[in-house]
Structure prediction request, 102 residues.
Amino acid sequence: MSTDVHMLSGAYALDALDPAEAEQFTQHLETCPVCAHEVQELRRAAARLGAVQAVVPPPSLRANVLAAAVRTRQAPPMVTPLPAGSWTRQWPTAWPPPAVAR
Ligand SMILES: [Zn+2]
Prediction:
């Protein structure tokens, strides 16, 4: 097994390891409480996902979402101020830029 053994908890929880890897990881679980806890949590999550039932959305959902998208104003871009002296502050603020004497 060339992969870091701690990275196999997800595959182990889903019984997706080959038998040799599964045996090695089982031994690892006896000494690693972090992985043991992670496997326990992943198995609980997998069990919950298995119990989920698909629900057919009401026919009006698509039209309602699209209508809400039309009414919703787009959020302005989040702009992070550039630090003083960055290259954009060196561009001229008026056009055309002043002539450079040669
Ligand atoms: Zn571990």
